[in-house]
Amino acid sequence: MRGKQISGKMIAVLAALLVLFMAVGVAEEERTDASEQWYYVLEDGGATIMGYAGETEGDLVIPRELDGYPVTSIGVQAFESCRSLTSVVIPEGVTSICNAAFGYCDDLASIAIPDSMISISDSAFYKCFSLVDITLPAGVTHIGDEAFFESGLIGMIIPDGVTSIGDDMFYKCWDLVSITIPDSVTSIGDNAFFGCWELASVAIPDSVMSIGDNAFFECEELAGATIPDSVTTIGKDAFYGCANIVLSVRSGSYAEQYAKENDIPYVFTAE
User: Fold this and answer.
1) Could you tell me the CA-to-CA distances from 51 to 46, 79, 127 in Å, in that order?
2) CB–CB of 261/242 below 8 Å?
3) What does the alpha-carbon distance between residue 158 and residue 163 come to, in Å, rounded to a whole number?
4) Apex CA 116: angle with CA 92 and CA 42, to 5°?
5) Where are the domains of the chain?
């Protein structure tokens, strides 16, 4: 009798798993819209753009809906290596740009991001060499690792809701001259600004508690960085190769001790 009960439970579990797998399969099935221009999948009632059937060159305007479904996301690698794409307009209602969505888009110089945007995932604009300017709306709370890896950005204002500067986020953004880090950020990841040669100064807010390995490695023009008392961890070679750097620290702080141990010039900030 007991064996029959166990067998019944196993059958019930297997049946439930089968239903789940079937549901997932339906959710991830790629479709082509009625115009046969766009590839997409349905997720939670919204359309995730997976690619474009036409020539991805010049200017691209992403539709607000496909076959009656609202477009809510730009999918993983959706436009990766579309090297002749020069501008993109993303409609209101889209909340996320997934991993490597615009990676290796060499000529992408302009992208309009809607106020509805919440998340920009890893490598979203990886090696977008022509992307010199981007405006992120206030609602963005997540920017992934390598999001702007070797992009052409000159200046950047990070929205207030973002809590971390991810690993390699601005790796070798050679032309980046300014960065605004909001009070919401608590950590600066490994290699975050590695090789940002033109970055001249950075103000690190009181919310930041850790700075990763090689965070400002070889930022050759970096002459000043204010390190608040809140910082209790600074990784290996965080300021290596910053020949002109002078850290602004509080007397008796962890940052002062770090500067001494690593032979980095420093001055005391006002009490």
Assistant:
1) 15, 6, 19
2) no
3) 10
4) 70
5) 35-268
Residue of 28, 84, 31 lying closest to 53 (CA atoms): 31
CATH topology of domain 35-268: 3.80.10
Rounding to the nearest 10 degrees, give the CA dihedral for residues 25, 141, 143, 153: 130
Single out the residue of 127, 185, 134, 175 nearest to residue 157, CA to CA.
Answer: 134
Torsion, Cα 224 180 125 235, to 10 degrees, reads 50
Torsion, Cα of 8, 12, 14, 18 (10° steps): 150
Over its length of 271 residues, how does the chain's per-residue pLDDT go in tens digits?
334 444 454 444 344 444 344 444 444 789 999 999 999 999 999 999 999 998 888 999 999 999 999 999 999 999 999 999 999 999 999 999 999 999 999 999 999 999 999 999 999 999 999 999 999 999 999 999 999 999 999 999 999 999 999 999 999 999 999 999 999 999 999 999 999 999 999 999 999 999 999 999 999 999 999 999 999 999 999 999 999 999 999 999 999 999 999 999 999 997 6
At a CB cut-off of 8 Å and minimum separation 6, what does 176 contact?
153, 154, 155, 156, 170, 193, 196, 198, 199
Which residues lie closer than 8 Å to 19 by C-beta, 6 or more apart? none
144 φ/ψ angles, rounded to the nearest 5 degrees: -80, 175
d(CA 226, CA 244): 14
Residues 214 and 235: their CA atoms lie apart, in Å, by 7
Half-sphere exposure of 232 (CA within 13 A, CB side): 4
pTM exceeding the 0.85 threshold for the entire prediction: yes
